[in-house]
Amino acid sequence: MKMRIDEYIEKVQNGKVDMVLKTKKVLAEIKKINKEYHYFNVICEDLALEQAKTLKKNAKSKRLAGLFISVKDCINVKDVESTAGSRILKGYKPLFNATAVQRVIDEGAIIIGKTSQDEFGFGSFATNVGLGYKTPLNPVDKKRVCGGSSGGSGGISKLASFEHVSLGESTGGSIVAPASFCGVIGFCPTYGRVSRYGLIDYGNSLDKIGAMGTNPEAVALVQEVISGHDQKDSTSLEVPTVDYAEYLEKSIKGFKIGVIEESMGKGVDVQVMEALNQTIKKLEFIGAKVKKISLKQITDYAVPTYYILATTEASTNLAKYCGMRYGAHEKLEGSFNDYFSTVRSKHLGEEAKRRIMLGSFARMAGYRDAYYIKAQQSRQLMVKEYQKAFKDYDLLLCPTMPVIPPTFNEAKKLTPLQNYMMDVMTAGPNLAGLPHASIPLIEHKGLPIGMMFIADQLKEEKLFQLIGALQQDEVQN
Amino acid sequence: MKFKTDEVIGLEVHVELNTLTKLFCSCPTRGSSEPNTLTCDVCLGLPGSKPVLNKKAVDYALRLCMALNSDIDKELIFSRKTYFYPDMSKNYQITQYDRPIGVGGHLQLPDGTKIGLERVHIEEDPAALMHPGGMHKSNSVLVDYNRSGRPLLEIVTKPEITSAAQARDFLKALITVLQYLQIFDISDGTIKADANVSIKASGYTRAEIKNISGFKEIEKALMYELLRQKEALLQGQKIVQQTRSWDSETGITQSLRTKESEDDYGYILDPDLTITELTDDWQKTIKETLPELHHDREKRYKKEFNLSSDDAKVLTQDYNLSEFFEKLTKEVDPILAAKWARRELARVLNYNKLDFSDIKFDHTHFSKLLILLEQKKITETVAQKILEQLVVKPFDVEHYVQKHGLKMVSDSNQLELWAAKAIDDNPKTVEEYAKGKEQAFNFLMGQVMRQSKGAASPQEVRQILKKLLK
């Protein structure tokens, strides 16, 4: 049984936990889970044990002392193979930690491994894993998908019996989608709140690192630690950090919550609709004022806008993977063009190739104005629509995913376009760079259904306030 | 077609800025010739790295825009130019696309011609490719990322250049401006160009010559290409629009590809970089601290040193010469310094077919020489001779004078001995002089000077000879 996270950390700080022994147990546990569920691309045993030993000597004042952290594969961990789930980066061991990783290490956390994901983040189910990688299975029902792209992070967060938080990454919904399907909290901050330095890029104007886990205090603590300005990332915001854990204790009485009207209709599973209605009742019970709000532009244009911008950026980001400096290599033959093509054809997965082609198309002369430029404009309109909404509301609410976790067979039958429509709820806040979180509130026949709350720019604390209030409600009932 | 001249040339010039660090990382731009030692995750394009703009490079770009009278954008925006090439660490180059930092402006050539400019923009340099054993023989290519990410400015002219010689003048003038602005180091900074070349006889069908390195090469490449186009027409061939490469080893251009339309680089905004506001305050600071440009310096020389217009102009047109002259003025009379820096030095350099940049001695050698001259310790003749030697190999001037006994001789006993000998040795000349032939006197003067190895004071020799010949 897990103890309260602050009590656990205090014990570690005071040297009352044998961290080496504990870490060995944790490693044994995740190895066992991994055999069955495929949540890790790499388990970094040596690094974890070394960190546990260091902790023995100086744990005092370390705010995350003894907390175990798994890291999505696309976030660099020094000297640990980091491939963003792609065979084209096989063997790439970064020379530096991502800022987010460095910050949790500095606060005494222990890194246990790199979690599985859709290749480069290209998917909503974690089924588009890179060539040679195993697909993570839903922790509740192994026939079903984990959600993606941070699938491994969602799965291990659900099953870990130890004090754990995962660092996930979201471009268009990759934190909240697996959080919803796995039944954990998935937290995605304001764009620029957490440094992207050391993050292997998907769509640079969209990528965000956030915490996932089952323990609200631990998620709040980690989210605070990884936040804050970083000179190594030009898009990092210069704003002070906030003690999020403090907000977990506060009431949300009087909070105005807008339910996004368009998320209640066509294309949404009945079970999901039912869960939304129950959530509304819960919110009203704990003192929130809930009203419907229409966000038409966002609902209509978020998915196409997202796919144009994200793939456009991705198609340039992935250009550097050509077998020349790191990652997969092939026999040197023909011209450089032949060689690059051989490496890329052989080692990139199907969805990666699809997105490179889509993105390259959207930025070519003759199409650039109609797609790339138009999508930029559309994005601005969405930002404005949100700004208007937040004049009246503290938070916005909709289901995280329009469906309950599909089985692998069901997922396989979806066309690429149907797949992309899974992001209809999540693309909006990601495009606008707004903080959002998926919270596991309801279950349907044991299957988790997450609800997504969106806050205004840099108002992360309101989301933690809500998470805390809902948790207290659970405890009381 | 709006063109009228026989030859039409437009240049895209790439200049390497002399910032201490690279454009998007803090790697040094100089300091090691060992390949791949001045690199980091950013300039190697390693996964997870992010660029951070070097503001100094922006300062330098602003200086150039101001000096060229280009309109400066209010915002600095970078784009990604994507194409696959082994010298590209990311397979995209961070550059500027539809919003360059500077638009328009012009550069004035020494003869007064103004060459109009399209734009000035900032971009990063790719890595350097090395072909062991030479471009054609090598069967492998090595990549040196020390150059990757160094800051470049691209200056694009309007197609207003009308000859290869004018293109050379343009580049010289551009280098001068860059040097005055202190943003370019001619000793190890490179200057490269792509050139659009066409001739009237073909109806101005353009050939683009890519990647010519060094300004002497640029003139050569242009001369070759203009000639090639004219010859081709004479032989009845059709000129087609194409891209050509310049091979400096063989001195010819070769067709790379013919193309109907522009290359498609699929530009997007670089989402790793935020928009940088070029605020009025920033621009004001740059304007106020702009180094003195050559036109201002020319005026100052006339006013402060009383130089002739001609001397002031010539001395300021070459930045290094001007800097050299400035240093001399601290030690010797500026008029003397101007005369020697401009005329005598130019004469010796011309004779040896050297450029000012080729000289090995520094201003201290030169000022010592002029001080000796100013103090009448050596004669002009001796000074000229020493200068001729200095150009070949620098040495301690005072020591040299001492060693070779070149100190000016005004001791009348010694001078009289030499003069008497000259008269005794040349009775015929003396006779001619007596008949009123002035040249004869000059010959005798020369004889005395020769005996003294140029060290005799000419005024005194003249007086003594006159006295003895009476």
Provide keyphrases for this structure.
A: 477 residues; 11-stranded mixed sheet; 14% strand; B: alpha+beta; Arc Repressor Mutant, subunit A; 3 domains; 10-stranded mixed sheet
Helical/strand content category of chain B: alpha+beta
CATH secondary-structure class of the domain at 5-247 in chain A = Alpha Beta
The gross shape of chain A turns out to be globular
What's the oligomerization state?
heterodimer
Count of discrete alpha- or pi-helical segments spanning 4 or more residues of chain B:
15
From N to C, what is the helix and strand string of chain A? HHEHEHEHEHEEHHEHEHHHHEHHHEEH
Number of beta-strand segments of chain A: 11
Through-space gap between termini of chain B: 79 Å
Q: So what's the overall shape of chain B?
A: elongated
Largest interface: A-B, 43 and 29 residues
Instruction: Please state roughly what percent of the residues of chain A sit in beta strands, choosing from under 5%, 5-15%, 15-25%, 25-35%, 35-45% or over 45%.
Output: 5-15%
Query: What is the mean pLDDT of chain A?
Result: 96
Contiguous runs where pLDDT drops below 50 for at least 5 residues of chain B: none
Strand count of chain B: 17
Total helical elements of chain A: 17
Per-chain topology:
The complex is a heterodimer of chains A (477) and B (470).
Chain A: H1 5-13, H2 19-37, E1 40-43, H3 45-57, E2 68-72, H4 99-106, E3 110-115, H5 151-159, E4 164-170, H6 176-182, E5 185-188, E6 208-213, H7 216-226, H8 244-247, E7 256-260, H9 270-285, E8 289-293, H10 296-317, H11 336-347, H12 350-363, H13 369-392, E9 395-399, H14 408-413, H15 416-420, H16 427-431, E10 436-444, E11 447-455, H17 460-476
Parallel strand pairs in A: 2-3, 2-4, 7-8, 7-9
Antiparallel strand pairs in A: 1-3, 4-6, 5-6, 5-10, 9-11, 10-11
Chain B: E1 7-16, H1 55-67, E2 71-72, E3 75-76, E4 79-82, E5 92-95, E6 102-103, E7 106-108, E8 114-124, E9 128-130, E10 142-144, E11 151-157, H2 164-180, E12 191-199, E13 207-213, H3 215-234, E14 242-247, E15 252-258, E16 268-269, E17 276-277, H4 280-288, H5 294-305, H6 309-317, H7 319-329, H8 334-351, H9 363-374, H10 380-392, H11 397-403, H12 412-425, H13 427-434, H14 438-451, H15 458-469
Parallel strand pairs in B: 13-14
Antiparallel strand pairs in B: 1-11, 1-12, 2-6, 3-17, 4-5, 4-16, 6-8, 7-8, 8-11, 9-10, 12-13, 14-15
Helix pairs in contact in B: 2-3, 5-6, 6-8, 7-8, 7-9, 8-10, 9-10, 12-14, 12-15, 13-14, 14-15
